[in-house]
Design a protein that fits this description.
The complex is a heterodimer of chains A (about 300) and B (about 270). Chain A is of the alpha+beta class. Chain A contains 6 helices and 14 strands. Chain A has a domain at about 25-190 and about 205-255: Rossmann fold (3-Layer(aba) Sandwich), CATH 3.40.50. In chain A, the strands form 2 sheets. In chain A, strands 1, 2, 3, 4, 5, 6, 8, 9, 10, 11 and 12 form an 11-stranded mixed sheet that branches. Among the domains of chain B are: about 5-85, no CATH class; about 165-220. Classes of the chains: A alpha+beta (about 300), B mainly alpha (about 270). Chain B: Keywords: Nucleus, Ribosome biogenesis.
Chain lengths: ~300, ~270
């Protein structure tokens, strides 16, 4: 933050305290930003994503004239105002039709973002079937080798893990496992070297891999009795479904990544070495004794052991 | 007795929860995520075939993920059965930087020295005279009790213009003023401390450091690694890193490993 805000009354003080950096952070909120021009597909996609992230989403549905890849400051401003660290920006133009930008913000500065072209979209409303309750924590499935091998896709995996991690819950209700989101990238054909389109800004990269689609599907989970401890899983399409093509993207620099992934001192647990406990509950310690200097040990004083005088 | 029907029914209920995969999936149960790295093949253009393929792979992965979640330690509450999740293994960036440590105030420093622990004071105080709870300060606060009495005795040496009510209120206000002064002093001292810490961020010092750095680099850029260069006044001393050689009496196992690594480089 550029300016240090000072609370004038107790209520605003409490509100500011909620936004302060914390050791254990608040769940990340996402803001869904509508661009100056949007298609039906993009608008519906924003609405659906808003519904999926329900308690932690803010819809900015008025037209916002901003271009994240040209100038990120308006987005950073919106993040500061709304205290949101994730964003989806939707727009539609002749040059970039049906585009969605997924991104993250760290310390009210842009962290990373990925622009996609939506080649196929199916809304929550279009698919008739069972729908999970709002606010359910989704299961995430990433299939495809690219998520581990390709550098950009592995960063994308990290983004989506962050994006759909609803809250930092330490436990989950077993009957509440109703929703799974799958991210699939098919294996790339034996690669032919392709020239990456060079952009003027060195920090912005364009996807140079031969256009691989990212398939995002969202399913409703039905847990059936199987006679085992684990239930049998059957799934039915729920929506929203996306076929996305990666266009431009921006990755964080190493030092920003480092400062964003720092673990606070309070969360480190000290390793206790050489201390264990046995099943009864006794505390056991392993003690290391240094080498004894046998030459200098004082033994019984006998005349015969005396050093001869030279 | 014919049990075939019962057996058939049982078989129907018994659905296979095991999924065979070439490569086992990896999981991050803290984030409820599964990572499937099995070969999927190239992209499918037929829409229907694609959907069925996506659904099939997702179902299998979900089954495995749910099997894993169901094997976690559980806890049953009134709201249902909960599985305790482990800590996430994937590194997820924070949304804001790690909070800075706040400098201690004078009182906090003193309390630490003396081992005084803060005890939370109740805002409501029992008023013995009326037998009811009253706030310690603020509206109807007990700290205004004296000045609000309907009759206040005048001190014997008071002159005619002396207002007892006002003087009592002033006493109370002075205490507030005193505390405000202390708060101000604490913030000023904290700012001074901060400035001291950030001394290296002072532009002059920054330039100095940079100059020293570049001097060291330029010294070692000559052919003799700066051995025959003229010494500059105030030149930083540079410690050379000691060359580390492998120990002579290492074990045969270690030696074999090293030889292997050399061989692997050659072929």
């Amino acid at each position: 933050m550029a300016t240090v805000l000072k609370a004038k009354n107790a209520r605003s003080k409490r509100a500011l305290e909620k936004r302060e950096p914390k050791v254990i952070e608040n769940p990340k909120t996402v803001m869904l930003v509508r661009g100056s021009k949007t298609s039906n597909i993009v608008q519906q996609a924003l609405r659906d994503l808003c519904a999926l992230k329900k308690p932690y989403s803010i819809s900015l549905s008025k037209r916002n004239e901003l271009f994240p890849f040209e100038n990120e400051t308006p987005l950073e401003f919106l993040s500061l105002k709304n205290d949101a660290s994730l964003f989806v920006f939707g727009s539609h133009s002749k040059k970039r039709p049906h585009s969605l930008v997924f991104g993250r913000i760290f310390d009210h500065k842009l962290f990373d973002m990925f622009e996609f072209h939506v080649s196929h979209f199916q809304s929550l409303l279009e698919l008739k079937g069972q729908v999970c309750a709002s606010g359910t924590k989704p299961l995430l499935v990433f299939s495809g080798m690219s998520f581990n091998q390709d550098a950009t896709f592995s960063k994308l995996k990290n983004l989506f893990l962050d994006f759909f991690n609803l809250d930092n819950a330490s436990s989950v209700c077993l009957s509440g496992l109703q929703h799974v989101i799958s991210f699939t990238v098919f294996d790339s054909p034996p690669s032919q070297p392709s020239d990456s389109a060079s952009s003027t800004d060195p920090s912005i990269s364009t996807s140079d891999s031969p256009q691989l689609s990212l398939y995002i599907r969202s399913y409703f989970i039905n847990l059936e009795k199987s006679g085992h401890k684990e239930p049998y899983v059957s799934i039915s399409p729920m929506g929203p479904d996306f076929n996305l093509l990666l266009k431009r993207y921006r990755l964080p620099s190493d030092d920003i990544w480092k400062s964003a992934t720092r673990i606070p001192k309070e969360l480190y647990f000290s390793k206790t070495k050489n201390v264990s406990s046995d099943p009864v509950g006794n505390k056991l310690g392993r003690v290391h004794v240094g080498i004894q200097n046998i030459d200098k040990i004082q033994t019984r004083k006998v005349k015969a052991l005396k050093k001869p005088r030279v | 007795m014919d049990v075939t029907k019962i057996l058939e029914k049982h078989a129907l209920g018994n659905k296979d929860v095991h999924v065979q995969k070439l490569y086992p999936l990896s999981f991050d149960l803290g984030l409820l995520a599964a990572f499937d790295e099995n070969i999927l093949g190239e992209e499918i253009t037929n829409q229907e075939a694609l959907e069925t393929k996506l659904m099939q792979t997702t179902r299998d992965a979900t089954q495995l993920l749910i099997n894993n979640i169901f094997s976690l330690p559980r806890e049953s509450t009134d709201d249902g059965i909960f599985a305790n999740l482990p800590k996430p293994t994937s590194i997820i960036p924070r949304e804001k930087p790690v909070p800075k440590e706040k400098p201690l105030t004078r009182w906090e420093k003193f309390a630490k020295l003396k081992g005084i622990h803060k005890t939370k004071k109740d805002r409501m105080v029992f008023d013995e005279e009326t037998g009811e709870l009253r706030p310690a300060w603020g509206y109807k606060g007990i700290n205004k009790k004296e000045e609000e009495q309907w009759l206040i005795p005048l001190p014997s040496n008071a002159d005619s213009s002396h207002d007892v009510r006002k003087s009592l209120a002033k006493k109370r206000k002075d205490l507030m003023e005193k505390n405000k002064k202390r708060q101000k002093r604490n913030t000023e001292e904290a700012a001074q401390l901060d400035a001291k810490k950030n001394l290296s961020l002072n532009p002059k010092d920054k330039r100095k450091q940079q100059l020293k750095k570049s001097l060291v680099i330029s010294k070692t850029s000559t052919a003799s690694m700066g051995k025959f260069d003229n010494k500059v006044e105030g030149e930083p001393k540079v410690r050379k890193q000691k060359r580390k050689l492998p120990s002579v009496n290492r074990s045969a196992l270690d030696e074999r490993e090293i030889n292997k690594s050399i061989l692997s480089k050659l072929f």
